[in-house]
Design a protein that fits this description.
This protein is of the alpha/beta class and 407 residues long. The protein is built from 14 helices and 15 strands. A 7-stranded mixed β-sheet has the order 4-10-9-8-7-5-6, with helices on both faces. A 4-stranded mixed β-sheet has the order 1-2-3-13. Bound molecules: pyridoxal-5'-phosphate (PLP). The site of pyridoxal-5'-phosphate (PLP) has 15 residues, from α5. The site of pyridoxal-5'-phosphate has 15 residues, from α5.
Length: 407
């Protein structure tokens, strides 16, 4: 069985909802991946930022296997000895009081978009079924029907209607637009502190502080989706800490499961989350002991290995090296911590093609929106490994420049 055989077999049984690079991966350890033909690659994308601890981190694998041998799943029909310690840790790290455990990031977002209107009706006094949530243009919060209903990307919505009403999109990073969009029926502003899938878009400095003030002034919940930006990725444990604000709700996912299994959380204050009563929400797998054991270990690792600090220092190094690249293709290099996007001039070069070529130089990553190549390596990556990835990227750009005759 070679690479093409697996790709052909997959195409027969799986609709092409993704456009993966033509590699068939087989093994991962630390920052590295191996394909079935024995080729080795540096992982500079980490499953859209979910493998922050590197592949198969021994402590996470141990937590997973030890818990799997004891107790993996009970549902929330019963209590377990893992849930309280996990949620206590999540609350003490983030500054919140309560959390609802889910599995995927999208489920964490769905939880937030149920909690916010409940608070709107029961506390703010919004008339029944009139609650509105404001979101940002070019957002990415997942793929469920409700979530794509407030996407502004036409291909995410095409043919999936009728869509869920009650959402309004404003330009990202624009505090004035938020204030203008708020009505007496607005229950929440749901936003990514840095937009990931849109192309690693960093908002203007001070914007988080301003939106915090505006939401407080108008009695609107500020809910941050930190599924990608949270847990050290941007150089702080949470991106909201860059401006010392406290949101009213926080969604975490991806790295929370240690790159081993899906674990997500919606965190908030007690006065908000205690409105959720028996029967209002749930998930068979949400908060399962296996997920909690891995989540506890993930939180411990983040703190003990100071991965936020690593992301800050190595991210600054990577950013400065990327900015030194002298290429007429590059329009902008932006990001925070170990989460960086290189934006190319439209029409000159295709991000997918860059990634496709980089794999021959031993580095894997993925474009977003065709013109941006993203870098989100494990937070455990070494400087030498970053240098290897940078060389692969640099050499790829020069190669394309040479073959296209651009001076
Ligand atoms: N929210 C953000 C900010 C994301 O980037 C993603 C996934 O990329 C999600 C939510 C959805 O997470 P999942 O794919 O685990 O459902």
């Amino acid at each position: 069985m070679n690479t093409q055989d697996f790709i052909t077999r997959e195409a027969l049984v799986s609709p092409s909802t993704y456009t993966p690079l033509p590699v068939v991966l087989h093994e991962g350890k630390g920052s590295w991946l191996w394909d079935i033909e024995g080729n080795k690659y540096l992982d500079m994308m980490t499953a859209y930022s979910a493998v922050s601890f590197g592949h198969s981190h021994p402590r996470l694998v141990r937590a997973l296997t030890e818990q799997a041998q004891k107790l993996a799943l009970t549902s929330r029909a019963f209590h377990t000895d893992q849930l309280a310690p996990f949620l206590e840790m999540a609350c003490s790290l983030s500054g919140f009081e309560m959390a609802i455990p889910m599995n995927t990031g999208a489920e964490g977002v769905e939880t937030a978009v149920k909690v916010a209107p409940r608070w709107g009706y029961e506390v703010k006094g919004i008339p029944d079924n009139q609650a509105e949530i404001i979101v940002a243009e070019n957002n990415f919060h997942g793929r469920t029907t409700t979530i794509i209903s407030f996407s502004t990307e036409p291909i995410y919505q095409k043919d999936f209607g009728p869509l869920t009403p009650g959402f309004k999109a404003i330009p990202f990073g624009n505090a004035k637009a938020l204030e203008e969009a708020i009505t007496p029926n607005t229950c929440a502003f749901l936003v990514e502190p840095i937009q990931g899938e849109a192309g690693i878009i960093v908002p203007p400095r001070g914007w988080l502080k301003k939106i915090r003030e505006i939401c407080s002034k108008h009695n609107v919940l500020l809910i941050l989706d930190e599924v990608q930006s949270g847990l050290g990725r941007t150089g702080k444990m949470f991106a909201f800490q860059h401006e010392n604000i406290m949101p009213d709700g926080l969604i975490l996912g991806k790295a929370l499961g240690g790159g081993l299994l899906p674990v997500s959380l919606f965190l908030s204050r007690k006065d908000i989350l205690s409105l959720m009563t028996p029967g209002s929400h749930g998930s068979t797998f949400g908060g399962n002991p296996l997920a909690c054991a891995v989540g506890i270990e993930a939180f411990s690792l983040l703190q003990e290995e100071h991965l936020d600090q690593r992301a800050k220092e190595l991210g600054a190094y990577m950013m400065s090296e990327l900015k030194k690249i002298d290429s007429s293709f590059i329009r902008e290099v932006r990001g925070k911590g170990l989460w960086i996007g290189v934006d190319f001039h439209k029409g000159l070069i295709n991000g997918w093609e860059v990634c496709e070529r980089m794999r021959f130089k031993g580095a894997l990553t993925k474009d977003t929106h065709e013109t941006v190549v993203r870098f989100a390596p494990p937070l455990t990556i070494t400087k030498e490994e970053i240098d290897f990835g940078l060389k692969a990227f640099r050499d790829t750009l020069y190669e394309i420049e040479q073959s296209s005759g651009i001076p």
